[in-house]
Amino acid sequence: NAGVTQTPKFQVLKTGQSMTLQCAQDMNHNSMYWYRQDPGMGLRLIYYSASEGTTDKGEVPNGYNVSRLNKREFSLRLESAAPSQTSVYFCASSGAGLAGDLSYEQYFGPGTRLTVT
Amino acid sequence: LAKTTQPISMDSYEGQEVNITCSHNNIATNDYITWYQQFPSQGPRFIIQGYKTKVTNEVASLFIPADRKSSTLSLPRVSLSDTAVYYCLVGGINSGGYQKVTFGTGTKLQVIP
Predict the structure, then answer these.
(1) Which of A50, A106, A108 sits opposite B96 (nearest CB)?
(2) Among A59, A106, A112, B45, which is disulfide-ready with A92 (CB 3.0 to 4.6 Å)?
(3) What proportion of chain A, given as a percentage, has pLDDT over 90?
(4) Does A39 touch chain B (CB under 8 A)?
């Protein structure tokens, strides 16, 4: 049981390049999330997916797109990277919504450190 | 979303009990209160969750007064390994199944030897 996994761990992009951050969970959770964390700051929600086939914007969605490929996987795409997107990106999942699951606990992945030059 | 306010930083000596208070004046009826811990270069980790009164688990206690406008995370006998940022979150599930919560800037706890 690996929990939430993210790839890659580190990435350096040039301005204008594109890339996709991958996230997978093996806990059969319905909900998945993408956050970014800038230095010294809290986490800000980029996009979330309440269930397979649905996605919606969070607090800071501009410059990003997401895909909920299946129940396990939730990817985040930067179409044209900008220096302002330099950050640590965390993926999380939650069982909230599963029958009988009243826990609001989100399980986080190890993060992807992205630098855009 | 309910806004939370917590101290930016706190220092404590090893072995002491630490209490971190979070203010959430506009908490909604269906909202739960959740606390997370984050170490440098790691994702946040769930500590404890509650709705009202007192909740205790193996690592912490959460005290919530009757009006639920604040909550206090209590860490008994802290050690150096408890040095981390602690986030107070308030939120619940909306009709779409989304767990709507907001991470603030957190409280940076420094445990001193």
Answers:
(1) A50
(2) A106
(3) 67
(4) no
Residue in B32, B42, B43 nearest the CB of A104:
B32
Q: Which candidate, A41, A88, A49, A50, places its Cα nearest to that of A65?
A: A49
Q: B31 or A46: which carries more pLDDT confidence?
A: A46
The count of other CB atoms within 10 Å of the CB of residue A96 is: 21
Which has the closest alpha carbon to B39: B90, B110, B95, B101? B110
- What are the tens digits of pLDDT across the range A20-65? 999 999 988 888 999 999 988 888 989 999 888 889 898 899 999 9
The percentage of chain A sitting over the pLDDT mark of 70, rounded to a whole number, equals 91
Residue A90: exposure state from Cβ atoms within 10 A (0-12, 13-18, ≥19): buried
Convert chain B into a string of H (helix), E (strand) and C (coil): CCCCECCCEEEEECCCCEEEEEECCCCCCCCEEEEEEECCCCCCEEEEEECCEEEECCCCEEEECCCCCEEEEEECCCCHHHCEEEEEEEEEECCCCCEECCCCCCEEEEEEC
Q: Is A84 helix (H, G, I), strand (E, B) or coil?
A: helix
